[in-house]
User: Fold these one by one.
Assistant:
Number 1:
Amino acid sequence: MTKADLIEEVSRLTELTRKDSEIIVETIFDGVVRSLRAGDKIEIRGFGSFRTRQRKPRVGRNPKTGDRVEVPAKKIPYFKPSKELKDIINQTNHTGAASPASSGIPEQ
């Protein structure tokens, strides 16, 4: 699913205009990014949590030339799914496909 698909889905389910749905989706993403940049953790119950992890500096190699390259320390975003999300994804019906009705997700 792309961001455009998500905007379209929000528009369809809420019966809002595409522009209003785009503002909603962008606001959510901007909030997540701002929180992560500030070093905060984001928890969405039943979905998962977003946080940053610190990577240590290391010595890497340029794959083309084989030269040693100093890779500086940096923060990376990390997502940890909730147990509920893992259970929903792994729940299957008789055909082996995920069952949206039993997961609480509306069928389309």
Number 2:
Amino acid sequence: MINYAPARPGTKYSDIDTPALIIDLDAFEANLQRMAAFVADYDIRLRAHSKTHKSPLIASKQMDLGAVGICCQKVSEAEIMVEGGVDNVLVSNEVVGRQKLERLAALAHHANIAVCADHQSNVKALGQAAAKFGVRLTVLVEIDVGANRCGTEPREEALALAKLIASDPALKFGGLQAYHGSAQHIRDPEERRQVSENAIKLTRETVELLDRNGLTCDIIGGGGTGSFEIETTSGLYNELQAGSYIFLDADYAKNLAAPSSIFNEFAHALFVYATVMSRPVDDRAVVDAGLKALSVDSGLPTVHQKPGVHYVSASDEHGVLDADSGHKLPAYEEKLLLIPGHCDPTVNMHDWYVCVRGLHTDGAHVEALWPVAARGALL
């Protein structure tokens, strides 16, 4: 298969072909360091979520800075991470179906593997797969703390599931998965705190019930880019699963935070580089990055460092720009940076990260190309 890269190391920034997925290395590295320093100050573990970046190389950088491991959502993602040298993976999701379960069990011969469960039938199937492959799988009970997605009910139902896990000789009860996904994007910080604190209350009650029944949670995991400070200061969670902090997409940038929040220190580090391919009329410009280059599920991208210029609509291969009164649209063949609304699915559309050093300087150049190794890993 022909797999063209939009640049090579040493390419001038202005010569990168488009559309291209750009990492601003200076901002990216600073984001990594900020989170590493935060978890070190609070003595809490970071298990960074790799569904954001789908790259063993980036996962290794996170672990080099102290992350205990990573999260994946799919077995195929976990396989690619382990093949790339990552030795500690939590599949922070349910895995259903004999083929996937057996692949997961086989992977446990090569790395420390854990997985989540929220149903008794799934626990039994996990035990069968682990026994067949001669491994002992660590299983976390996922509880629904308000997101209304996966997860068993907290407290008594979670206890029953934990007991079932602990009773299977091929399984080890590993703790709780208590992630509130929708809380991450509540804009108002006080409302976000209230929702997150209710999730913490449910989690704490479940942990205490498990403890009274002799079941210890080695992992109490959750917390995303929008709420990780709240879970950290709860004194309950011992692992954070933030992922998008490394890139900070346009949707997360809409979250409001307290002036003292570390969230304010993260910077945009992921962009889609695009070219104005058409200027058919004076009040419209069209770029070569549309729905196949950018995910719009969390809103349209924003145009970086072009005040008054807006990305207003997308089709398969085109994005339309307009400008406020008194502002100029970019010229024909001009290149510009777009901040995706949602970084995770945007990354999944590209084969390569084009890593640029000194992005906003005259010497901006491509320092490296990194493959998006787990692109399309859905099974």
Number 3:
Amino acid sequence: MLKKEYRLKNKKAFNATYRVKHSIHKNGITLFAGHEKKETEIITRAGFVVSKKTHKRAVKRNRLKRLMRESYRLLLKSGETGNSQKYLSLIFIGGENALNKRFDEIQNTIKFLITRI
């Protein structure tokens, strides 16, 4: 489980990240990156969103969020974060194409997005 200190929870922080409009997309997952850090000690926070329009069942939406969160946690643990740590916040948005993907496919997609951002 991703620790609370790494999670993006505040609605204002989500809106500020969306306003920057710095995004990349692959295999049904979109990554929005917020403002760049001025200080290196600040922790990069990540948010995970799957819209109700993606699937009407909450079980499917929550499964996709759990898979994205776990793959990001493992990438943080292994240190394969690429350029993502120079941003204040990241938002991963799961789409319809990512619903039926396996964990390794989602992990490869998130790793690609993090390195390309």
Number 4:
Amino acid sequence: MTKEILNEAKEFIHTYYKEANKPEEQLMQRLHEIEKEIHDFGYYQHTYDELDYGAKVAWRNSNRCIGRLFWESLKVIDKRHLNTEEQIFEALLNHIHYATNHGRIRPTITIFHQKTEQHSVRIWNHQLIRYAGYQTEDGAIGDSDSIAFTKECQKLGWTGNGGHFDVLPLVIQIDDRPPKWFEIPDEFILEVPLRHPDYHWFEDLQLKWYAVPIISSMRLEIGGITYSASPFNGWYMGTEIGARNLADESRYNMLPRIADLMGINRKTHSSLWKDRALVELNTSVLYSFKEDGVSIVDHHTAAKQFQLFEEKERNAERPVTGNWAWLIPPLAPATTHIFHKPYNNEIKKPNYFYQKAPY
């Protein structure tokens, strides 16, 4: 295991020093320090500059992300020294506050203690802000995708309101200690009520969504070191909310209701009721976020931004990797250049990886 960590550390440090144009003698000295740390402890500690670079390149290497043009703008917050659940909770609140920025969302990552044989930090939430899901005799209420985690929160003592948009608590676990849950104060949560520029009845649906998608269930891997708690965010692409979260049958399933209110015949697929309702739902999301001054991008603009990212990577003589099935938007994919291109789905490190839920 130590040999594997050393090999990955060497590869990462070589790449970092090359891209940062650092002198050869500094590189050799740093490699010597890392080798000694790994020999003595079985792992090594990143400097802040290494951590900053590694987290940014992990975004650059994220094959499923269409928003990689902005990888260099990621704000990296180093919280590796924190060792209590209460301290970590405060750091998560600071992340939410900084990233939200009154709606002018800032790409941010907060990195906690690296995973070792003796120590680990886990955030049980899939995202720092997410809505609860309740299974009832009459079907699901809220976000169906959150039902399992909501049950775990209830086992820990949290009680939601049983509504469609109850924000879940943060659940933090250190080592093998029992997890602790913390309610997020309302003032930290920015939500956008959805309305439509043409259909005034849309407000009667009482739909809303939170402003910042902060992924907190993935692990960050840099040079052989794993950070099992490293929540990160960009801003939403509209279709994530309008074509998935609120539209999927297994989530909020709003398309039938919207189609009915639009007066579209749902008895035949040839009426394209799903397509027409989907477009108006996405129109509502983009319109509402922009009206409220909250950062969001439509899928056509995001595809153009990804095209620019590809050009920049080619100019830097770095091959672009990508997962085509994730890069194409779920709405009108054939209208983007991505649809018509093959991508190499090779996984490069540093990167973000899924990890098994701790519950």
